[in-house]
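Contributing new records

If you add data, match the layout below exactly. Sequence lines come first and carry their own label; structure lines follow with theirs. Keep one chain per record. Anything else will be rejected by the validation script.
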Amino acid sequence: MKLTWHRPVRGDFDHERLWGGVILLAAVTMLVWFGLFALPTPSCLFKESTGLPCPTCGSTRAVEALLSGKFGASLRLNPMVPAGAVLVSLYLCYAVVVVVFRLPRARLQIDDGMWWALLSIASAGFLGVWIYVVFDGR
């Protein structure tokens, strides 16, 4: 795995601009959905059809709790939400800084063996959260 810094040139795909925009759009949507209009929480189609909670069950309520400042409640509902919120916030800060100040962009070069290791770790984490959600009784 190797981290390099790349100054964008015309025609390069701008990940920071794209994903920063997606994150901002998602954040505004959540704030409008939960804060401004207080719309109902969508139901989980997986749980409705199988009777089992999906790995992301509790995420919507965890986001609501996080937006209300209830970090502990958010963590109990689904541990992926606060962890993901921290990572997404850090990426958004990075993306805004490099886009606004036209700084070089970080690029991670990962070899095939490392991809499999990262995929295995992510899968194990996802499975662990699902087991937590299933046995927590949601």
